[in-house]
TrEMBL record:
Name recorded for this polypeptide: DUF3221 domain-containing protein
Signal peptide interval: 1-21
Keyword annotations: Signal
Organism: Lysinibacillus louembei
Amino acid sequence: MKKTLLLSLLFCLALAGCSTGSPTNPTAKSVLKDDAQADILQYEGLIYQQASDLDITFTKGEKLGEIKKTTTRWLGFKNLYATQLAVGTELFSTNTQYMIAEVDGKQIPYIALIEG
């Protein structure tokens, strides 16, 4: 009886330790709740944040799409929505983990916000 109780207790402890969950990537909601003025966009389910303050070198790649909507509301934030980029702004891949937005001939880097 004691052996069964001990095994059951160990099993419950092991199960509880495994159920802490895995990290999730930031959402528009989590970013905008922390900073209502954040310059973000969403592409393929990931949130990208403007990163022009970083000193990076990149090569422009293929066109990924264009911004469909500009909004600061996190509710209903979808792919190709942005908080500050204008509708029609073109997005391009690069040879790095960044993507770029082209605004008036200027290339602005955005980096994916990924947890873990």
